[in-house]
Amino acid sequence: MNHDTTPHSQIWELIPWVANGTATPAQQQRVQEHLRDCSDCRDEYAQQCRFLAGMQLDDDAPPAAEPALRRLMQRIDAAEPAILPAPSAPARLAARAVPWLAAAVVVQAIGLALLGSALVQRPPATRADYVTLSQAPASERAAVRLVAAPEMDLASLRRVLGETGLHIVQSNADNSIFGLAPARTAPAVDVAEAIARLRREPGVLLAEPAAGTAALH
């Protein structure tokens, strides 16, 4: 029997192990580097994460994304007033916004599923200064799902968001998977072009349209 031993096929076989957190650090690094240039493997990685989240997510557990999203928005508001309007309460910029992806890949996948669940199951907001995603205007719903590489720092993230006219409207619990939407202060944004630009950024591991979201212009 012939076995395909090309680098692409080897990475393809490693993707499930990286997604479930059992790959070695060296294997994780190989996969992360390959995903930056291979759209087929990025799609497979995203599919594996969604599949794993569906198997492990406890349907009875309350969504934990809303508190994390509130904290993240406060941090981004303080760091980038040119992109987001300033919040009513003071915010503190975190020392780092992108934790080590490979060490928390299972948590990331579960967080992504929690975000989707929160969109349809989130209870009404109890604070006057916070608007739930179900109450937000359509332009503020996530149009792009972004996973940043471990080495991407906050300054690089802010720069690429400014270049694409996007801003962060969602995050999972550990702030490693982001939902992006066109910024209100930016000109008309072509989401397909923005995704293509994100995928060319060395610090972006995965960029794809958010599930159930039509392209925005």
From TrEMBL:
Sequence ranges assigned to domain Putative zinc-finger in this UniProt record:
10-42
Recorded hits in InterPro entries, A to Z, give: Anti_sigma_zinc_sf, Znf_put
- Return any one Pfam family short name: zf-HC2
Claim: Cytoplasm is one of the keywords in the record: no
Q: Does the keyword Transmembrane helix apply?
A: yes
Membrane-spanning intervals of the chain: 97-120
Per UniProt, which keywords does this protein have? Membrane, Transmembrane, Transmembrane helix
The identity of this protein, by name, is Putative zinc finger protein
